Every structure is written in C-alpha cells, then in structure tokens.
Amino acid sequence: MTDIAIIGAGVVGCSIARELSKYDLKTVLIEKESDVGEGASKANSAIIHAGYDAKPGTLKAKFNVLGNPMYDAISSELDVIFKRVGSLVIALDDDEMQTLHKLYYQGIANGVPDMEIIGGKKVLKMEPNLSKDIKGALYAPTAGIICPMELTVALAENAVDNGVELMPDSKVTDIKRLDSGYRIFMGEKYVDTKYVINCAGLYSDEINNMVAPPQFKIIPRRGQYNIFDKNYGDFVKTVIFPCPSKLGKGILVSPTIHGNLLIGPDAEDLEDKNATNTTLNGLNTIRHGADRSAANIPYKNIITNFAGLRPKPDTDDFVIGESKFAKGFINVAGIESPGLTSAPAIAVYVVGILKDINGGLIEKEDYIPRRRKRIRFEELDDSEKDALIKKDPRFAKVICRCETVTEGEIIDVIRRNVGARTLDGVKKRARPGSGRCQGGFCSPRVIEILARELKCDISDIKKGNHNSYVLIKEDAFPVRAAALGREQCPDQVKSRGSSNMEDGNTQSGSAKGVGL
Amino acid sequence: MISYDIVVIGGGPAGLAAAVEAGKCGGVSVLVIERDRELGGILQQCIHNGFGLHIFKEELTGPEYAERFIKELNELNIEYKLNTMVIDITSDKVITAVNPKDGLIKIKAKAVVLAMGCRERTRGALNIPGMRPAGIFTAGTSQRFVNMEGYMVGKNIVILGSGDVGLIMARRLTLEGAKVQLVAEVLPYPGGLTRNIVQCLEDYDIPLLLSHTVVEICGKERVEGVVIAKVDENRKPVLGTEKYYPCDTLLLSVGLIPENELSQKAGIMLDPVTGGAVVNESMETSIEGIFACGNVLHVHDLVDYVTEESKNAGRNAVKYVKSEISRGGPKMIAKAKKGVRYIVPQVIRLDNIDKAAVLSMRVDNIYKDSKLVVKIGDKTIKEIKKRYLRPGEMERITINKGALSEASDSVISVEVSEVV
Ligand SMILES: Cc1cc2nc3c(=O)[nH]c(=O)nc-3n(C[C@H](O)[C@H](O)[C@H](O)COP(=O)(O)OP(=O)(O)OC[C@H]3O[C@@H](n4cnc5c(N)ncnc54)[C@H](O)[C@@H]3O)c2cc1C
Ligand SMILES: Cc1cc2nc3c(=O)[nH]c(=O)nc-3n(C[C@H](O)[C@H](O)[C@H](O)COP(=O)(O)OP(=O)(O)OC[C@H]3O[C@@H](n4cnc5c(N)ncnc54)[C@H](O)[C@@H]3O)c2cc1C
Questions:
Q1: Are A500 and B67 in contact (CB under 8 A)?
Q2: A459 with A423, same domain?
Q3: What is the Cα–Cα distance from A136 to A117, expressed in whole angstroms?
Q4: Nearest CB to A511: which of B133, B149, B221?
Q5: Of the residues B307, B325, B343, which one is the last residue of a structural domain?
Q6: What's the pLDDT score for residue B245?
Q7: Which of B255, B317, B321 is nearest to B9 (CA)?
Q8: What is the largest CA-CA distance in chain A?
Q9: What is the CATH number of the domain that holds B187?
C-alpha cells in the first residue's frame, strides 16, 4: 500500500509530488498520457501573474500572490529559465483607465507589490510597438514568463529523483473505497493507497465523482494562440494585457522565455474535453484582440498555432480541500488560470492538509532540492562550448538548426529521470522542433536518436501519446521489394550508383545500395 | 584561428559548383563546410532523374549529378569538412563552426560563399487550424524518410501545395503502394514544373484541385482526415464548400524559404521578395567579399541553373581574393516591373561584365502567348516571346554587354507584356 496517490501529472500534480518528496512517504504520480504535462500545463500563456486579477478573498488571489515570489527559488533549484519581465494592462479610453484603478486597488488588497499606474507616453516609451491610442497602463514588475513545459518536467524529474514513482500511460478508470484508503483502478492495473490527491485537471470532476457525489463541474474553456519567429521576440518586452472583461484577462501580446512572440488566448466554452484543435474563428479572434493592443504585428512570421483547455470550475474558484464525503481524498480541482502561478503555493498548502489529516509528516534527510543542471549549448560562450565538445563530441553535432540543439543535449533529456520517450517529449525538454522549421529538419534525426537510445526501430517512435506513430510500421514498399528481388522498377528511378553513399555513413539499412 | 582564402558554407550543388570553379581558377585555398554527413545537399534525397539536362545534356538522378561535382572537387584536392555546422559568420568574415572532431573552430576567410540552400514552409507558417497529430510532413522531410531512411510516412495521403517536391513525392509514394488521394493548391495555377504535373500526377490519375486549401486538420494522435475548401480570388476559404477527406497523412509542398539566418547575423541586406541576399553581377552581397548562390539566394527549380549561378559566385570570389573586382564604374539597378516578381542580380556593375549578364526572374501569374520585355529606361532593348510564362518556372534572360554599355539610363527593367 502506498501512502499517497496523486492523479494527474500536470504542473499542479507535479508540484505536489515534489513537495511531498521532501517527506518520508511512498508517493505515486499517476498520469493517463505517455508524458507529464500533457494537459493545460503545456498549452497556456506561460505567465507568472503578479496577482491583481482575482477577487480579494478567493483562493485564486491567495495562491497567486503566494506562488509568484516562490518562482525565484524554483527556477534556480530546478534550472528552469524564468524572467520577471513585468506586465502592463493597457487602457485605451477613460472607461478603461477606471478599470485600471480598480485593478490597482484589487492588487493592493491581494498584496501585490510594486504596482504603478503609468501614463500613455511612458508606456509607449517602454513599448513603442503598442497602439498609439494608449491612455495609460497598470505596470506590475513582478509578473514573469517561464516555460511551463520545462517547469512541469523539471518538477516531475526532481520528485522522481527524490523517490516518487511516476506511472505514465495509466488512466484512472475507477476508484473503490477500502477499509482504510482507496483502490485506484487503471484498467486492469490498480494501486492501493491511504490518501488520494485529485489533480486531474479537466477530468477532476469525473475523478471526484468516482468516490463522492458531484459537487462541481469542470467546463473546458478553450484558448488559442499564435507563436511568431524569434526574429520578433523583442516586439514587446513586457507582457501586454488589454483591460480585462467578463471572459477573463483578454488577449495578450507577450515575449516567450525562449525569445518568440506569443499572442492569445481567446475564451470559448465547449463540451468536448478533447477539443484542443485551433479554429479559423479562434485564430481570427486573437488576431483582432492583439491588433487592438499593438500595431503592425508581424503576421507573416507566424511559426505555429496551438490551443489549450482551461479546466474551468462552475464554482468560479479553485476547489481545494479534503472531500466532505470521502476521508483522505483531497480535491485540487478546477485549477484554471492563474494555476501555473499558484501551483507551488497550492502544493505547500495541500501538504499542510495532509499533515493535518495524518497527524504530521516526517521530513526526509536526504531530500535533494536541486535538479541536475541541463546543458544549453546555445547559451554557452565559445570557450565553454569548446570545452564541452572536447569532453563529449556529441555536443558538436547540431541536430536542430533553428534552436541550435545538439545531440548531446537530446541524449541527456532522454536519459534523465522522467526522460523523453517521444518526439514531443524531446521537444518539450530540449526544444528541437520548436523553431521556425517546426521539425522539418531535425525530426528524422531526433527519431533516429530516440530509436537508438530506446533500443527500438524508428517506426516504433511516436510523436506524442498512444497511437501517434510518426512512420508506418509494416513494410509497405513494393518498389523496394521489387528492387531487392532484382526486378526492374516501374519508375524511371535509376540506381543511386554513388560511391559517396556507401562509405560508412550511418544510413539505416534498407534504402541503401538497392537501386533506390 | 585557421585561415583560408575562400570558405564555402554548404556542400550542396551550389557550394560544390562554387568551390570547384574557384579551384579551377587556381591560386587560392578553398574550404567547403557541410553540416550533413555527406556532400551533395538536397540532391542526395532526389533519387528521381531529370537533373542535368541543360548542363550535361543527359538525365541524371540527384545523387549522380552531385557525384560529378564531388569527383571534381576531389580531383582538385579541395578541402571539405563534413558533419560541421556553421553557427556564426561576422561581417569581417570570421566563421564559427562546430564538429565532433575539431570542437569549436574559428576560421578567418578572405572571401565567403554562402550556399546554405533553403528550408520548407510548414503547416505552422500557413497557420492551418486544427489538431496537431502525427502524420503531417513537409514534402522534403517525407522524401528524406522514404528515400534515405527507407520508411513510409503514410498509406492514405493528401498533399497540400503543388510545389515540385510534393509532385515528385506524389509519384514516389504512389509507386511505394500508398494511395495519394489528391493534391490541393490554393492558387489558380500549379506551383511546380509542367513536366512534373504531367509525369507525377496525370500519369497516375492523381487529381489536382486548384484554388483549394486545407482549412482543418483532424485527428488527436495520428491524422484522421483533413477538411478542404475552395478559395476565392483573395485566397480566402469559401463558406459552404468544405469537404472532409479521410486520410492518415498530410504532406505539405507549400514553398521554400532561403535559409538566411547566418546571413542576417553577418548583417547582410536581404531582398524582401526573394528572401535571399541582394547581390550584384558578381553574386556579391551587401558585404564586400561575401557571395551568395543557389537556393540561399533565391529558390531555383532546376539544379542546372544553380550550378551556373554558383560558378559565377566561385569565380568572383577568386577575383575578390586577387583584388580583381572593379568597385567604381557605371552601375545599373535591375527593377522587376509589371508581372515580374523579382530579378536577381539586383545590381549590375558594367566593368565586371565579361560578355553578358544573366538576369534570373519569376513572374507573378500564368501568362499565355506573351512577351518578356527588357527595357533600359524607357527604351526596349530586348523582347522574348513566350508561349507560357509560369510562376513555377524561373526565367533567365541574357543581356549582352554591348546593350548595357550603350545605355543612357541606370535602370534596367523587365516586364510582362501580353500579346493579343
Ligand atoms: C489557455 C490557457 C491559458 C493559461 N494561462 C495561464 C497563465 O498565463 N498563467 C497561469 O498561472 N496559469 C495559466 N493557465 C492555467 C494553467 O495552465 C493551469 O491552471 C494549470 O496548467 C493546471 O494544471 P493542472 O495540473 O491542474 O492541470 P493539467 O495540466 O491539465 O493536468 C491534469 C493532468 O491530469 C491527467 N489526467 C486527467 N484525467 C486522468 C485520469 N483519469 N487518469 C490519470 N490522469 C488523468 C491529465 O492527462 C493531465 O496531465 C492557463 C490555462 C489555459 C488553458
Ligand atoms: C526537396 C527538394 C527537391 C528538389 N527536387 C529537384 C528536382 O527534382 N529537380 C531539380 O532540378 N531540382 C530540384 N530541386 C532543386 C535543386 O535541388 C536545388 O535547387 C538545389 O539542390 C539547390 O542547391 P543548393 O546547393 O543551393 O542547396 P542545397 O542542396 O539545399 O544545399 C545546401 C547545403 O548547405 C548545407 N548547409 C546549410 N546550412 C549550413 C550550415 N549552417 N553549416 C554547414 N552547412 C550548411 C546543407 O546541409 C546542404 O547540404 C529540389 C529542391 C528541394 C529542396
């Protein structure tokens, strides 16, 4: 029997897992997808909010303001890049200026430090690409940007380094009460546990309903985005929000931590919890929204679009606490924005709840707060690069030309705890495929490295979850088969006849020297 | 730091031709730097034939075409480094590169030839909405998987874009047993060469839907289908024309983009239309002594023309090293006018023209029974009758030195004139 089972390895589940790994406990982290951070935690605005948005007195306000300052330590301990670039909520008319003042006082009530309302001229001096109609802005210097994917992976990795067991590809299908504790079923498999922590994001209502009567409902609220080429990463330097409306914080224009430009999200309530597709309408909406804030957004330089689903609770606030109906079953549900910001504070709070229920927890002596540093080749100076290559020549093999990611870095993220198993997994951790060519150049090479490291065939490599195989598995090559049988191919295709190809290049077998 | 007279970045057909030509001129040290494991560039994955018709008067496959130049390179004892990625170039021609053997290397060059080729436009750049499953490939990437790695990318395929690589892959994948349902093209005319439309689509009964585009990609894990709609004159999807096509793979052949990130680091001026450097008659960029040729300069459809252009770049790099390029003298600006999208080179310095200058260009639409009219100032100096002008086929016009030296105006322009 394990002590604690966490359901859902998003940023919330992983934060809690890491926090729990400080104590002498047996903890499992159960995740239905093949990797951690595949839900809301991978498709969001990536902002560590200052904390003026939420109504005073709500859990959202409380954990936002508590969570934000924790990110300095987290980013240094886990070696995740984080920058306090500050945010501006801009006002385009007098009504909006009034809203800014309301926000300002809301921020004060919530305990947000260092906010300032600044005039239009000053705003344009800070951000010359913004709309010339700007009247003023609420400036919050403590807002920051982070890579939520890397953060989630790093939290999980550090938790596993400290003894947490991660169970990927394990969808919780049912939960039964035991005399003391619960039996969690994942199809045929099950785990018995004393306590359950429900961090299942969009599905946290369904998980709750497995042991308790429905108390809340989660509505998927979709938000869509565009990302732009790195050449435009300094289009804005701070996170730019319009004045908030009923539907939320509105469409932002922001730099990303990796130096791209990001616009989005819209807000659209749906029924389908799988609808992470972008739509023509949605992409048009964010364009119009962004155009209101900034002039001349470089739309020709979009490199990709994506959508995320906010797990919106019908209670309008985070649902955090032990269920009234199920002892030892703790909901951490409906963690919509500012969930990323709040996650570390929520984790500390949840561990507090467990301490109460359990009558205390014993701290471990050998807890390691630091994650082994990741090597980021592109950021090294010339002499560091040279030294690294002398130590391991695989750092001289640039696999991703857009983000300058080397083979050494890719192997590292595969071999770590909570290592990458898929193309998306490698992309999440080391960024090949996130650049302007979107994997056109590197994906064949990354697949090759994955297959070598995982000791499988390249046709076994998936893009992401479950059945997302990149290549076709069975041999579907009549022409090659014909050529192997020394028959004439029907195409005018001729023999490669090139000596250049034969000399020891690491071509994967079949296409080589068979007249194709 | 090591030094060479000429460093060629990229070992594709452009880099090879430039290096070989420089080697033939003699008296200079030349180094070719290639990031891949072999020389030849994109040709190594083009196993179909149809290369070299203009230069060798025979039909070669891509690797065969490359092999001729690799052989010459070796005979001339020109040095090259494989598995070596150039990561930086400065305006004073210091090149930073990495490879597993030498680590991080700095090379000082007297002249640099940029020959980095191009990359493919992606689904992201088109901003196609929908899911993001496995099974979406650019045509060139699928070509690499099929031809070099020996793996199939899918069984039931839709192709978006009628660029040449997509057309070639339509045939290739059909021959390998896949079902290629159709090729959709957003423009009202095909993007690729006519010979490829005939030989790769028509011969295999693969329909080409002009003025159509993919408006949604479906499937959570692997592609399950795409929605295709008709587009209006402004390339906007027409509501109500959407049709769902089940498939497991979407190939994109929607354009190539010259790979000029390094050039930008060096501060080279780019032409917004070609996406490549602005060059003069010697293929020299806005930085003296840095030359550009091949797909990094502007996207070519025929490798033969890449070779010719690159020889010119190689020859002039040698001249530069030997201080034989004339800097002053009369200068002309090439202007693309009605119907012509761009002209390369953009600047012509008459003193550096031996016998004639070659202008390369592309038109902006399909024109039937029309003329390309070359003017200096208002004066027409040349007219070339064309039964067809197509955006997919690069046009080249040779202008004799005589016509240029007599000129009384400094603007040379080319336009399309529709003959009725
Ligand atoms: C569009 C958008 C923009 C946002 N912007 C910001 C922002 O800028 N700043 C900010 O602070 N917050 C932001 N958020 C909110 C933030 O992303 C979320 O609050 C946070 O990611 C929630 O984390 P989570 O771990 O609760 O949920 P998730 O990341 O969704 O994780 C839940 C996990 O549970 C797993 N799971 C579900 N069901 C089961 C099951 N039956 N068995 C096993 N596993 C299961 C899922 O696969 C998933 O991995 C944004 C959210 C969205 C969608
Ligand atoms: C997929 C594809 C298919 C084609 N099919 C045909 C065809 O059927 N018939 C035809 O006539 N033409 C075809 N073409 C066109 C023709 O092949 C190209 O015009 C020609 O290959 C361009 O030559 P290049 O040397 O400019 O570029 P490439 O062949 O792309 O060579 C560029 C080289 O530079 C290297 N490089 C780039 N950056 C760096 C760096 N930073 N450091 C070191 N090395 C670097 C690359 O690895 C590559 O080897 C095709 C083009 C493509 C893209």
A1: yes
A2: yes
A3: 7
A4: B149
A5: B325
A6: 98
A7: B317
A8: 81
A9: 3.50.50.60
Hey, which residues does A255 pair with through a beta bridge?
Answer: A261
How far is it, in rounded angstroms, from Cα B391 to Cα A233? 33
Nearest one of A357, A366, A362, A339 to A152, comparing CA atoms? A339
Q: Which single residue is written with the structure tokens 């070099």?
A: B148
Mutation target for B interface from A297, A399, A447, A516: give the one with most B CBs within 10 A.
Answer: A516
Bridge partners, B368 (sequence order): B388
Residues A322-368 have pLDDT tens digits of: 999 999 999 999 999 999 999 999 999 999 999 999 999 999 999 99
> A516 in a domain, yes or no?
no
Tell me: do A64 and A181 sit in the same domain: yes
Domain of B173, in residue numbers: 122-254
Least Cα distance to B48 among B188, B160, B147, B159 occurs for B147
Chain B positions touching A471 (Cβ under 8 A) are 145, 151-153
**Cα three-residue angle B25-B26-B29, rounded to 5 degrees:** 120
CA A300 to chain centre: 26
Closest residue of chain B to A407, computed from CA coordinates: B100
Burial of B231 (0-12, 13-18, 19+ CB in 10 A): buried
CA–centroid distance for B76 within its chain: 27
Domain count, chain B: 3
Q: Give the residue carrying structure tokens 């018995």.
A: A192
| Separation in Å, CA of B369 to nearest CA in chain A | 32
Give the C-alpha distances (Å, rounded to integers) separating B247 from B158, B180, B213, B227. Answer: 7, 9, 15, 10
Residue environment code for A168-207, b if the CB has 16+ CB neighbours within 10 A, otherwise e: bbbebeebeeeeebbebbbeeebbebbbbbbbbbbbbbeb
pLDDT tens for A140-170 read 999 999 999 999 999 999 999 999 999 999 9
Q: Are residues B130 and B200 in the same domain?
A: yes
In this prediction the ipTM stands at: 0.94
Q: Are residues B313 and B190 in the same domain?
A: no
Strands B411-418 and B243-246: unpaired
Contacts (Cβ under 8 Å, ≥6 apart) of A381: none
The two three-digit tokens of residue B250, written as one number: 């979407």
Tokens 């001249």: give the residue.
B319
Q: How far is A136 from chain B (nearest CA, A)?
A: 33
Residues B178 and B241 in one domain: yes
